[in-house]
Amino acid sequence: MVTVYDVLIIxxxxxxLTAGLYTSRAKLKTLLVERMILGGQVMTTxxxxxxxxxxxxxxxxxxxxxxxxxxxxxxxxxxxxxxxALVDQGEEKLVTVDGKQLRARAxxxxxxxxPSKLGVPGESQFVGRGVSYCATCDGAFFRNVPVAIVxxxxxxxxxxxxxxxxxxKVYLVHRRDELRATKVLQDRxxxxxxxxxxxxxxxxxxxxxxxxxxxxxxxxRKDDTQSTLDAVGMFVAIGVTPKAxxxxxxxxxxxxxxxxxxxxxxxxxxxxxxxxxxxxxxLKQIATAVGDGAIAAIVTEKYLDGFE
Length: 308
Ligand code: NAP
Prior knowledge:
Layout: E1 4-10, H1 14-25, E2 30-34, H2 60-73, E3 77-80, E4 83-89, E5 92-97, E6 100-109, E7 113-115, E8 131-132, H3 135-138, E9 146-150, H4 154-163, E10 169-173, H5 183-190, E11 195-198, E12 201-209, E13 212-220, E14 226-230, E15 233-236, E16 240-242, E17 272-274, H6 286-305
Parallel strand pairs: 1-2, 1-6, 2-3, 6-17, 8-15, 9-10, 9-15, 10-11
Antiparallel strand pairs: 4-5, 5-6, 7-16, 12-13, 13-14
Helix pairs in contact: 1-2, 1-6, 4-5
């Protein structure tokens, strides 16, 4: 007999795991499908300082291990696989996972977002050989050498601080002359002797040889001059791109590719909900992903009750 899940959750970050915790606790037959490893973007965060309940902070992977353990208490079923299609068949949704079709009465999409690319010459060529999108993952390879981090938000600020533990110098290349990052992070950046902001500058290209990255070409936006910055690593932290491409023809997305929902996480397809960073919303934090996951789960439960 074909299994029909009550709820199929796509994505295993904080939003997906929270939704899974709620639906499995509510005794709904739930399957969570994750493409890589459970935990999402938080797995690449060294210290989470602003998630309530953990004074002094907690390492991202440790926090997500607790989320998983909590879900297991309620018997959440999980599997690894990539979802490539979602078809609405009214009271049932067909979800293609690694080429196989699974059935569910409701779907919660929590696929999150991935780091955006600069799109400059040399960037893709040197990925893994000096270009990285995750300082926490790769920073320790850059001991006593100069590196650059591109961006001015919270991620760039946190990653610059992390990189300053290893690198001889951290250039913070930002396209404006003030950071977008929160004040507490800005204060730490400006107090750190190893971090040097390079204002009003765009990376135009990545230069390297067979050893990897050797320098970046920059363009100053104020005086339109070009310069070369000696750095053997370029960490890109210019924001994120939602992972909803596979849904472009199925759900309403905004021009940046975020899934459009109402305030209760309903998408344009009945029985399909979206929660966390993949959804268009004002604040992307673990706390808001968790809130979204809980709302999506409760609204899903109400939706399923409507059938009974
Ligand atoms: P973000 O806040 O969107 O910041 C992106 C930064 O990159 C901005 O400074 C932006 O410049 C710059 N940028 C964007 N496109 C660029 C381009 N093509 N070339 C050069 N620079 C470019 O992204 P984020 O820092 O990844 O943060 C994402 C979300 O996660 C935010 O809501 C953030 O608060 C949250 N977050 C929170 C924490 C925390 O609370 N501890 C940690 C990490 C992330 P402009 O400033 O000129 O736009």
